[in-house]
Amino acid sequence: MALGGLTRGLRRLGAGTAGDGAAALRTAGNRVLADSARRAPWMVAAVVATTLVQVVATLLVPAATAVAIDAAVRGDGLGSALGRLALLLMVMTAAMGADELVSAYFGSALTADLRHRLVRSVLGLGTASTRRFPPGDVVARLTENAASPASFLPTLLSALATVLTTLGAVVGLAVIDGRLALTFLAGVPLAVLLLRVFLTQAGDAMLQYQQRLASLAARLLDAHRGARTIRASGTVEQDIDRVLAPLPGLNDSGRAIWSAQRGVSWQISLLVPMLQVAVLAVGGYALSTGSITAGQLVAASSYVALALGIVGVLDSLVALLTCQVGAGRVAEVLDSPRPVTTPVAPVSLPNGRGRLDLRGVRLREGETTVLDGLDLSVHAGTCVALVGRSGAGKSALASLVGRLRDPDDGTVLLDGVDVSTVDPHELRKSVAYAFERPAMLGETVADLIGYGTQPTERGVRQAAEVAQAAGFIRLLPDGVATPLDRAPMSGGELQRLSLARAVLRDARLLVLDDATSSLDTATELKVAEGIDQVRGDRTALVVAHRVATAARADLVAWLDDGRVRAIAPHRRLWSDPGYREIFSARLDAEHDENPDTVVRT
Asked: From CA 42, how far away is CA 455, in angstroms rounded?
């Protein structure tokens, strides 16, 4: 509750002072920060308590100092006055130490919480995350943006403590002499105006700075990933320019922040001594007339210094803006709608061999309709090849059956059960994927093959044999125990490991998404024969670009214009010129590669 009130107050201070983008991002950041703080209420309470103790002690020290000075002048009660002053100083020091400790612990806990939630959200978004949030951008959000809010609560409370201290100091001046407080308050409206101007100028600049920094990180990561292509293309210098393209804008944003801070700082730096001189002049006059004592003048001097500490809020506002923008960029990921939702009451799949039915499936990617009311039935134990031109929706269809994403409309059934209602863990065990570009996950080759399962070494070796991967694995330093960073592999070898991973899952439905594209025709034939032996009577869905792959399938589903144009054996479809045209370019390449093994239909 306390944090919510503080963030609302800060939001009101900056309301209407920044562009809509910056304001919306800061509002989202405040929500994430408040939510994170609610997860650790005792730490919030501890930081608030230590801050309040510091404020009270700080305000009592000048009064205690005045009492000690006046006692020294009178020559009476000096010992007790000094004792009270020493006690106050000890309490204030202890509160400061406790505040530093709890704030550091809270900041670490907040950073860890945000990073865990961010990673969970990115992985939960699946393939959608890479389209909206490039890898470099995610890295920037995970490292810098998720860490910057760690100081939010301590900084916010420090700013609040400064405000409370200023108010208390003004009250202290009023208690000594009302004229002192009125003199100080005369300059407050100008100070508030200057701070509001700063928020107006710095809000958008801070957002632009964070965005351009993330763009720089994204470009650098892309260049690192494509280093071989860049080197081969002879475009090193051009790509250096491309990676560093955001730097001028980053420089402009940084200068805009500094310019806003500098403009306000010099104006406030003139206001501060003017107020201090004015208050002390009034105090000196009051002392000369006997209205106040020497100790009260010293206390007034301390109070005016404490009251002018409000100037330090400017630096706190810069830090708070950084925290809010960082948390807001984390919130953009956390608030992204999930492409796949977890069923409220998950059900189990019945015993079956992987019958697949897609009914009225419609899938859109942005403004493009990839699948448009598609219907397809695959009988249990059947191997169906998905064939179509580039962009026909083959991989999109394959992604639906295991709920890597959900259709916008329609239903996907596995053995008669809507996959959107199935327990996600059970569905993962029942549908195994092998992809065109498999990710190298795990520490060793065995980890990569057994990723997501708990296989035996014998199971890993058998799966490698089926996928025709055992031969090159035996040549590695430690066989399947070889660390991946010591196991250089070609694209074809990596695809064979991905196939071994799919075989190892022993799922009722096997989905091969162009998973043999990097294999030569002869190796692909051996892999296919091994998979057929292991597959037995289970169902297989194969995204096919090669004639040989389509010819080996029981049936071919010909996708065209977002629907199934025909489903029939390959040899029957081959008589259609439109079907043959799909393979024309690939057929020539296969013939050039190995004319003796190309399937002629």
From this structure: 44
